[in-house]
Amino acid sequence: MLLSKLKSWSRKKSLWVFHVNTGSCNGCDIEILDIFTPRYDAERFGIKLVGSPRHADVLCVTGAITRKNIDKVKTIYDQTPNPKYVVAIGACAVSGGIVREAYNVLGGVDKLIPVDAYVYGCPPSSETILFALKELSNKIGEKTNER
Ligand code: SF4
Questions:
Q1: Which mutation among 19, 21, 28, 66 tests ligand 1's pocket best, with the greatest number of atoms within 8 A of CB?
Q2: Which one is predicted more confidently, 142 or 111?
Q3: Residue 39 C-alpha to ligand 1 middle, in angstroms?
Q4: Does ligand 1 have an atom closer than 6 angstroms to the CB of 123?
Q5: Which residue has the CA at smallest separation from atom 2 of ligand 1?
Q6: Could you read off the pLDDT of 78-126 as tens digits, one per residue?
Q7: Domain range annotation of the chain
Q8: pLDDT of 43-80, one tens digit each?
């Protein structure tokens, strides 16, 4: 009980993020990377970009789900340790966006894996992405207090 509270508290204080690009136009990706620059400095909130899903708490997904990337996204999701959170960033990841009618597009990320937060926009601003990650970390903290 105490250990699980401690784990949740530490997770709230240090959300490690893995960025998954399923084939976006790079607009959303640039906005994500911007939050880790000195201008926004997400690390001051404990939000850190990591190079492997095995080290991540949160998957930030950009781009729509297509038939070609189904296996890739599923594998990355399975490689992420529990408890894990998924944030769909940008219109393409939320609903398929501008390509949602295409023959090979399934739609948004939630067509394939559970999504915990949606960040709208094409692309969403860096401030919005940072706000969403901070809100997610606050929600994790609230869960800790409920226990
Ligand atoms: S939401 Fe807009 S900016 Fe983001 S990947 Fe799709 S088209 Fe590009």
A1: 28
A2: 111
A3: 22
A4: yes
A5: 122
A6: 999 999 999 999 999 999 999 999 999 999 999 999 999 999 999 999 9
A7: 14-133
A8: 999 999 999 999 999 999 999 999 999 999 999 999 99
Would you state the CATH architecture of domain 14-133? 3-Layer(aba) Sandwich (3.40)
Residue minimizing CA distance to atom 6 of ligand 1: 92
Three-class secondary structure assignment of the chain = CHHHHHHHHHHHHCCEEEEEECCCCCHHHHHHHHCCCCCCCHHHHCCEECCCHHHCCEEEEECCEEHHHHHHHHHHHHHCCCCCEEEEECHHHHHCHHHCCCCCEEECHHHCCCCCEEECCCCCCHHHHHHHHHHHHHHHHHHHHHC
- For atom 5 of ligand 1, the residue with the nearest CA is 24
What pTM, to 2 d.p., does this model score? 0.91
CA distances from 33 to 39, 95, 107, 125, 127 (A): 11, 22, 24, 11, 12
